Amino acid sequence: MLKKRHPQLQVLAFDDGSKDNTAELIAARPDLVTLVRGAGRNGKAYGMKILARMSQGDIIVFTDANVTLREDAIARLMQYYADPTVGGVCGSLRYYGEGQSSTAEIGSLYWKLEEHLKKEESRTGNVMGADGSIFSLRRELYPEFPDTVLDDLTVSMAAVFSGHRLIKAEDVIAFEALVAKRGEEFARKMRISTRAFHTHLVMRPQLKKMAAADKFKYASRKMIRWFGGLFLILGVFSAVLTALKIYTMLGIGIALLLVFTVMIGMKATRGPLAAAIEVAMALVATLVGVFKAMRGQTFTIWNPAKSR
Hints:
Elements: H1 2-5, E1 12-15, H2 22-27, E2 34-37, H3 44-54, E3 59-63, E4 67-69, H4 73-79, E5 86-96, H5 102-123, E6 134-138, H6 151-161, E7 165-177, H7 182-207, H8 212-246, H9 248-267, H10 271-294
Parallel strand pairs: 1-2, 5-7
Antiparallel strand pairs: 3-6, 4-7, 5-6
Helix pairs in contact: 5-10, 6-7, 7-10, 8-9, 8-10, 9-10
């Protein structure tokens, strides 16, 4: 549908050593998509750099393999580039499948908050990085970066670092299914936060040069997200410690109640308790990922969640 609407649209796909018939399905339609096969498992960032070098248009649009774009997405996206101060445009991602489980419900709620924050960032200047579902950049601004970073954050922030604007477009819409299984979501959150914090360390020299308003937006969002699990753990520990100081048995009782609640919540799949566990696990998974990055770890390759 996109190609029919924009015949000159160049569509490139990188296959990172898939073992199903993905590459064959793409190769069967050379009239729609140009397939680039990797030599093995090298990761998304590696593949995106190859595709960016092959691109011929002035604007590069990035999207993930499990994302569907609305038919008018490209046409609406291009309108924003009439403003020469705009270096990059983030689209709006709408998740579906939130009714599958509490994991999906909390994921949907979290993303609605994320979309709102990006909208406010755009209204006040620059968005502090895009996600990979749908974003774009002027090709001349595409940066150099190692394969170990989160490429969507690195590439989108290049617009800000170059002195251009990175904005959010509410009418450029993409759709994606939610992850429905708790274990898969925990692993996904951990991987993303590991790569994000590693990327933060790589970008730190450029981050220091940003305007004060952008520094505040970046720090307030990223740091609270990355260390929210630590705040949660310290809060629980402080509450139990305070109860112990007031009355020993009260503290022991609260600690046992928390342990029992967590055990029940881990088995629950629906309801407020299951939702609370999902939130706590998301915060902890993110914190674990940050600690991994602090120890020098990152993820270059991964397998997609099967519950999408």
